[in-house]
């Protein structure tokens, strides 16, 4: 956190000064470790073992926050008798289909209640998994029975609590020592601190970044942390939570209002050709009827109205048919394979640099070289724009400039100060940026580019049926200035939505299923409440309390802590004075507190839903997880995930050790590309070391916004490889020497930084050396400093839930000296691939 | 004169992010220092110089680590010290004493500032600094160093480095207040078991009469590349300067005196001599510089730079 | 003559004249005129750092149509005026000489960049979108109506504004382009 989010880290330092104990778990000793009370080195790719052992510690010693767990989680829920655990099936859950390499999750469901069959099967299964369906849970939960059978004594052998207990029983401190390399004493200290600092009076927070997500079990890493935090009562309370520290200014916004293949704004699924025939069919299969997600018709219809306006009517399903359909995985890496195969002809790359920034860079460049046309928009001539004249494949002779038929348009972009608009930061906070000045030369905002491109494309449309969706699209935005810049505020207002009177809506609860409201992104409804740009609010911090509700606007409803109903006990009283946040004011008959309560403000804690209630009416006054169909925090996910209802430790796709827990070594559902552009390291002595990649404070991602800047480039001018002294000595490498790092994808060279901050770990009786490479360099990109492309080393193997690549744990070899050049480099690579 | 302002750099909360280096360069519009990988932990700007007015040192310390399962792991780093160095703005500033042009002067905030429009690049100040801070810029020739953002202070703003510092490791304020705050911080750290916490440069009785920029360190100063016992190189200078002044006057006097009201030449000399800026007895003049330079070089060696220059590039 | 002219500005003379020889007497006219350049700004925009997702507040000072300083916004409850090295380098990000400000075009199999007018580029890109969409249109797939093109794909960075992402997704979806991805995936 000190490395990549230094200004956010000030709050950790503040907490530390007030007595908080800070642990840092990381494969390498970073600037964060230097500030932590305790640093725990860990083998990259083994975190579920550590977190699972903490869960086991809590369950085994009865340290869970029982009142919270009973009221707010699904611990008491009885699971189907068809369910089989990894403990029973040696690393597989029930429902595994080896032919399709996917799970049929029906057996994971809650036990049937008798009166109606469980609805969980609608979500899950092959089609759902292929289209990265689990990503839709960014705003709402998967469907589950709203009032399943429970056992409040938590003793039923098939209740979630007992299932968890059995599942994690073998995740012991001894296993942590053997697989993670963390000694027992260090684990004991962590376990003691985490449990002692949880409960009524205290909370513990977990903070993670892509060190947890870029794994073939990435989503399950987060699930494991969520289970631990729910057991300890650390969700929805001040000082608790699981904080994703995101690495780009509006990466949260980029999923909320996604430019992602599988979701529409507000985490509504893109329709799937086989799963969703029409609007009714779609709504039926995309979540439960209970909880706030039960209002999804309002969300979707309002979106369709925002996009197709008058053309969207009840009779035509509000133009639901205008939406193109998915048939499977159309994600980033699969798209690149489509480029190589020639199905993808044209490619827009907007403020992104896949030629050095995406995994398996060589495949990226092969794809770029096989396009008809490519549009790149950026501040500088990034490598993705110039691969045809200076890419590494030219040096090896794999490509020749004259042979590359790709037509390339480079359009310079406006910087963040040359346009106005909102970023959504890592805490869901939208902040409006004022424009400081006009962009220079041909530089334009991406808003300008897409608005005018849309205008020009629409001018070229015919009366053909296939042109109807773009023809009927609402595309009238006011423009201003010499550049005819579209109004970002008008777009934000459309995102916010308007009611039947044409006035801006103030809350998503006003959205209607009948087409009378229009809203571009339901979770952002309220950002333009009262016709005021709420994201532009800047009441100084000194003039408001620490929650600072009048600085920017957080989705949803300007809530700063999600699920904050859980900060009060079931009766609506704060768990403790120390941790009071929102509470029920019986006199006034409403919820109140320091934040916007994350529940219906007038719903009393003793409210019980009547039979057959739907949407929010089906949630009890004690249910804090209002987007879940049962209102509960899920210790066990009966539905929705592609790789199991509970996390299980699997080794990374490339690992030097066996899975000590199960016969199943790696995540069985992981996504691989078995084709020549995507080679994998074979297990064995050829690739003896663990490699992890990361960022440095001084640079940004693949360097496009830092390498061209002298003040940043001078601080970290060259690609280096961090290596422990013993490994360096064994390889005959001295500090500052050159080393060559090899995976089956590529060979690269880096300067060596010999440092005791990298620690060899004793794992399962062997000494495992880990090396680390920051990935900020590339061959060009207007960089004042250049270096080999670290992302070229990483494998194209993905988490099955959200298709993120495993960039944080793989194997490699290290050789002393610089890498060979040209053909000789390919020859060396061949010896590793086949030798 | 306004209140004396200073920096208190609390290295115990420094995260080594180098925001201070960059914020300084952006505000003061300094050139880069070249793009050379130094293989010295995460430090690639080396030391303070004409174009680097804040510099973050990184010190990796290995201590025996108790890893029962791996008895060989004792070479692991368990402490990574980071510290943002800066001009000390000495109470007795040798650089200022030796400046023949008056380019260096003491501001109303008690800081020492070099005026680039006056500096003629003679370089006398460079060896005079006991810390090796002030330096001449290649291709420019003039001497440059931290001004404690004199221009910002004139507008009531804090210096760029202190403003940017994410963890408040760099604090700016009235020197007296900072000293008090620093004493409290040391006491707190010691109470928390950090016996090694100490202040550096805060004492008016040290060899430079106390620094306007002082530090809280977690180890010996030399570990951070700071001279353990800096002494103003100009302690004996007043007597020398009186001679020099008299000699200069005797040459230029006929012209110069004609412009002066009341022949204050001698008076000025008296003022020089009688100022309060020099305390303490005679010391080895000019030696502190050599000491510190040699020291810095030694540090570079320790940190592996020599190894690099040994031919692996 | 005394008190003016080059000789009077000669530092030695001024020092000898003044009461504090290394203090106020040594000040040059330039020094006397020093003020923070931010005071001369014509406008100050309240902005947000474009690097990581902490969302630190920035103040952007503009003078004579040029950015003269970007520093932390002390009012921000998130950052309290502080910035990391990247945030502190933001002025360089928007003003460095390596920034491209003109459209460049590389024709198929070309070996060099060529200049291209922005409006012409926009027309050419629109032509290609329409043509590729028509050529690769899929009305059905695996027996189901899909109404899409697999011929056009997009990849966006996560420094795009919400409003930009919104227009992108809206336009692509209406055109039937589904392979629309973002840094947020990876």
TrEMBL record, chain B:
Q: Which UniProt keywords apply?
A: 4Fe-4S, Iron, Iron-sulfur, Metal-binding, Repeat
Query: Could you tell me where this protein is found in the cell?
Result: Cell envelope
| Chief place of localization | other
- Every copy of the 4Fe-4S ferredoxin-type domain together lies at 5-33, 78-109, 110-139
GO cellular component: a single term: cell envelope
Q: Which domain of life is it from?
A: Bacteria
Q: Which is one Pfam family of this protein?
A: Fer4_11
What does UniProt give as the signal peptide span? none
Q: Which CDD domains match?
A: FDH-O_like
- Is-annotated flag, keyword Metal-binding? yes
One MF term from GO for this chain? metal ion binding
The name this protein carries in UniProt is 4Fe-4S dicluster domain-containing protein
Organism listed in the record: Nonomuraea montanisoli
């Amino acid at each position: 956190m000190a490395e990549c989010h230094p200004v956010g880290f000030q709050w950790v330092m503040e907490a530390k000064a007030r007595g908080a104990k800070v642990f840092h778990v990381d494969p390498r000793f970073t600037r964060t470790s230097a500030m932590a009370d305790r640093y725990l080195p860990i083998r990259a790719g083994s975190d579920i073992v550590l977190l699972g052992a903490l869960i086991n510690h809590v369950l085994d010693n009865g340290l869970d926050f029982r009142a919270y767990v009973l009221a707010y989680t699904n611990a008491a829920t009885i699971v189907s008798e068809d369910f089989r655990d990894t403990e029973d099936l040696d690393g597989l859950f029930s429902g595994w289909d080896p032919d399709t390499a996917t799970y049929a999750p029906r057996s994971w469901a809650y036990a049937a209640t008798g009166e109606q069959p469980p609805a969980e099967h609608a979500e899950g299964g092959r089609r759902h998994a292929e289209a990265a369906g689990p990503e839709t849970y960014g705003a709402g939960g998967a469907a589950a029975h709203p009032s399943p059978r429970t056992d409040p004594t938590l003793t039923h052998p098939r209740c979630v609590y007992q299932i968890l207990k059995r599942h994690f029983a073998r995740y012991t401190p001894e296993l942590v020592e053997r697989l993670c390399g963390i000694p027992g004493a260090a684990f004991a200290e962590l376990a003691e601190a985490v449990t002692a600092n949880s409960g009524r009076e205290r909370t513990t927070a977990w903070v993670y970044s892509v060190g947890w997500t870029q794994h073939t079990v990435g989503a399950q890493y987060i699930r494991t942390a969520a289970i631990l935090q729910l057991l300890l009562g650390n969700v929805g309370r001040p000082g608790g939570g699981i904080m994703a520290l995101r690495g780009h200014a509006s990466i949260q916004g980029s999923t909320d209002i996604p430019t992602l293949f599988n979701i529409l704004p507000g985490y509504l699924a893109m329709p799937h050709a086989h799963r969703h025939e029409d609007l009714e069919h779609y709504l039926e299969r995309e979540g439960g009827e209970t909880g706030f997600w039960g209002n999804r018709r309002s969300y979707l219809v309002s979106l369709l109205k925002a996009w197709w306006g008058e053309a969207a009517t009840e009779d035509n399903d509000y133009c639901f048919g205008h939406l193109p359909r998915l048939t499977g995985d159309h994600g980033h890496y699969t798209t690149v394979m489509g480029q190589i195969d020639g199905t993808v002809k044209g490619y827009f790359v907007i403020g992104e640099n896949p030629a050095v920034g995406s995994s398996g860079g060589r495949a990226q460049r092969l794809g770029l070289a096989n396009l008809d046309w490519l549009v790149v928009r950026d501040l500088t001539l990034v490598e993705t724009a110039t691969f045809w004249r200076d890419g590494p494949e030219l040096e090896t002779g794999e490509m020749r400039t004259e042979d590359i038929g790709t037509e390339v348009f480079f359009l310079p972009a406006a910087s963040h100060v040359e346009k106005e608009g909102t970023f959504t930061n890592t805490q869901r906070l939208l902040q409006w940026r004022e424009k400081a000045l006009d962009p220079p030369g041909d530089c334009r905002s991406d808003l300008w580019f897409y608005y005018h491109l849309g205008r020009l494309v629409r001018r070229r449309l015919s009366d053909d049926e296939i042109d109807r969706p773009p023809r009927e699209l609402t595309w009238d935005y006011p423009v201003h200035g010499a550049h005819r810049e579209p109004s970002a505020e008008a777009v934000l207002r459309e995102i916010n939505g308007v009611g039947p009177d044409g006035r801006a809506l103030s809350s998503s609860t006003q959205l209607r299923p009948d087409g009378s409201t229009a809203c571009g992104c339901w979770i952002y409804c309220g950002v333009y409440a009262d016709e005021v740009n709420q994201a532009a609010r800047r009441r100084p911090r000194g003039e408001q309390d620490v929650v600072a509700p009048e600085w920017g606007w957080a989705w949803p409803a300007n809530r700063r802590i999600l699920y904050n109903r859980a900060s009060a006990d079931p009766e609506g009283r704060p768990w403790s004075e120390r941790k009071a946040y929102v509470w029920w004011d019986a006199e006034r008959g409403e919820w109140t507190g320091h934040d916007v309560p994350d529940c219906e403000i007038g719903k009393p804690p003793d409210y019980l839903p009547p039979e057959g209630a739907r949407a929010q009416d089906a949630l009890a006054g004690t249910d804090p997880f209002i987007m879940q169909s049962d209102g509960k925090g899920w210790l066990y996910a009966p539905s929705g995930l592609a790789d199991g209802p509970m996390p299980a430790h699997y080794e990374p796709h490339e690992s030097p050790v066996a899975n000590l827990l199960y016969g199943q070594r790696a995540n069985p559902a992981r996504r691989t590309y078995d084709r020549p552009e995507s080679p994998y390291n074979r297990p064995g002595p050829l690739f003896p070391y663990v490699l992890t990649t990361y960022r440095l404070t001084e640079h940004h991602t693949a360097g496009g916004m830092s390498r061209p800047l002298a003040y940043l480039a001078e601080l970290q001018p060259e690609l280096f490889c961090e290596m422990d002294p013993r490994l360096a000595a064994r390889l005959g490498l001295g500090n500052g020497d050159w080393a060559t790092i090899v995976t089956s994808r590529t060979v690269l060279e880096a300067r060596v930084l010999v440092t005791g901050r990298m620690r060899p770990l004793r794992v399962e009786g062997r000494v495992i050396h880990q090396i680390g490479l920051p990935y900020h360099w590339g061959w060009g990109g207007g960089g004042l400093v250049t270096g080999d492309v670290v992302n070229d080393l990483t494998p194209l193997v993905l988490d099955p839930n959200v298709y993120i690549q495993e960039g944080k744990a793989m194997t490699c070899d290290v050789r002393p000296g610089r890498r060979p050049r040209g053909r000789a480099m390919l020859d060396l690579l061949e010896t590793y691939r086949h030798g | 004169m306004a209140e004396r302002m200073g920096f208190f750099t609390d290295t115990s909360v420094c995260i080594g992010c180098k925001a201070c280096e960059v914020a300084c360069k952006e505000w003061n519009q300094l050139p880069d220092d070249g793009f050379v990988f130094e293989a010295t932990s995460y430090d690639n700007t080396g030391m303070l110089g004409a174009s680097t007015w804040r510099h973050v040192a990184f010190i990796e310390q290995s201590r025996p680590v108790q890893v029962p399962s791996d008895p060989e792991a004792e070479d692991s780093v368990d402490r990574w010290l980071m510290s943002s160095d800066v001009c000390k703005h000495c109470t007795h500033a040798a650089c200022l004493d030796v400046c023949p042009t008056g380019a260096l002067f003491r501001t109303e905030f008690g800081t020492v500032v070099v005026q680039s429009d006056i500096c003629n690049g003679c370089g006398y100040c460079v060896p005079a600094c006991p810390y090796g801070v002030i330096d001449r810029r290649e291709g420019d020739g003039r001497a440059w160093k931290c001004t404690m953002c004199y221009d910002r202070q004139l507008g009531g703003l804090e210096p760029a480095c202190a403003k940017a510092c994410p963890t408040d490791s760099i604090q700016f304020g009235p020197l007296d207040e900072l000293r008090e705050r620093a004493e409290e911080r040391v006491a707190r750290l010691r109470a928390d078991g950090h016996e090694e916490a100490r202040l550096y440069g805060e004492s008016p009785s040290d060899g430079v009469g106390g620094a306007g920029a002082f530090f809280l360190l977690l180890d010996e100063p030399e570990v951070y590349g700071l001279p353990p016992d800096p002494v103003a190189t100009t302690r004996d200078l007043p007597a020398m300067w009186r001679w020099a002044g008299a000699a200069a006057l005797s040459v230029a006097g006929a012209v110069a005196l004609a412009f002066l009201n009341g022949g204050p030449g001698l008076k000025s000399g008296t003022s020089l001599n009688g100022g309060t800026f020099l305390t303490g007895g005679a010391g080895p003049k000019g030696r502190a510089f050599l000491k510190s330079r040699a020291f810095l070089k030694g540090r570079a060696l320790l940190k592996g730079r020599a190894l690099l220059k040994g031919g692996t590039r | 003559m005394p008190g003016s002219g080059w000789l009077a500005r000669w530092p030695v003379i001024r020092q000898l004249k003044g009461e504090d020889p290394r203090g106020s007497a040594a000040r040059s006219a330039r020094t006397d005129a020093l003020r923070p350049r931010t005071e001369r700004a014509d406008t100050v925009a309240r902005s947000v750092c474009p690097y990581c997702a902490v969302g630190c507040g920035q103040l952007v000072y503009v003078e004579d149509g040029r950015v003269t300083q970007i520093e932390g916004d002390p009012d921000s409850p998130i950052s309290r005026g502080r910035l990391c090295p990247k945030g502190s380098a933001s002025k360089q990000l928007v003003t460095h000489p390596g920034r491209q400000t003109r459209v460049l075009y590389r024709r198929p199999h070309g070996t060099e960049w060529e200049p291209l007018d922005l409006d012409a580029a926009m027309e050419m890109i629109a032509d290609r979108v329409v043509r590729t969409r028509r050529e690769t249109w899929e009305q059905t797939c695996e027996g189901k109506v899909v109404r899409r093109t697999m011929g056009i794909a997009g990849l966006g960075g996560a420094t795009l504004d919400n409003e930009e992402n919104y227009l992108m997704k809206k336009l692509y979806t209406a055109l039937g382009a589904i392979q629309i991805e973002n840094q947020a995936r990876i």
